Amino acid sequence: MTKKTIVMILIILMVLFTGVLSVYLSFIKESPFGEKRLKFGATYMNMNNPYFVKLNESIKKTVESQNGTLIALDAQLEVSKQISQVDDLISQKVDVIFLNAVDFKGIKPALIAAKKANIPVIVVDSPVFDDKLVDCTVVSENYNAGVLCARDLVAKLNGKGNVVIIEHPTAKSAIQRIEGFEDTINKYKEIKVVARKISNGQLELAMEVMDSIIQSNKKIDAVMCLNDPTALGVIAAFENTKKNNKVYIYGVDGADDALAMIEKGKLTATAAQSPDKIGKIAAETALKKLEGLKIENYINVPVELINKQNLVYP
Q1: Do residues 254 and 271 lie in contact, with contact meaning Cβ atoms separated by under 8 Å?
Q2: Entry pTM
């Protein structure tokens, strides 16, 4: 390699370095946090649900746009594990904690610990009981999700039928969905809840409990599920027993798998949430909090009922 070639390569490298440096300095100048590397923590009730994966990706994308990093943890439906995860995030001195609570009441010790450490907590997807201990709650209109499913069902049943409810009593979001559903169908005396079981939002458990319900009930007209994974488990149970004719099944989330089931005629409808929007709003709210700006205490994100008539599925 000649001396002239070496010089040319060095010049090119210097130009490239200068360009990259200028872009970086421009970014730092525009960022309200300057050169500070922000650190965020998140703990979710269960990351085997595609909904929470999308939610986390949205938060991650938003915080990384401001030179931040995100530590995401899966509590696997164990409140004690989630409390330990919050303690660990506090010890790592994260700037903000995003929390999707396993148990809306049982998570209180973690909220107190974060408060003592002066670390803001942004609750996502499912509210906590002690909401005065958190800085902001960003959730779907969970109650309305249940209402939308119930209204659709009432029309299909003509105000008469036997209904099964599959629930998750420690997750406030699930509680609100079922409350919205029951408050609506309770107006119709000839619609009766003939069974209710707990699935904790898990497909496998939902399939198991639904199978037991099918075996012990002669007539089931509809099943209200707290989320889409539960609905998929219910569908599987009916398919296993060959008794899924004319049973209306409802979920909540709007997950791709659920939309596919609607397309196939196996799921009646799902009250679709917007995990991308919830994640973006939560992350932007966290950034505002760190800037010292005023933030809202509670943010509701609308839901939409998706059925065969308005389904848009690739």
Answers
A1: yes
A2: 0.84
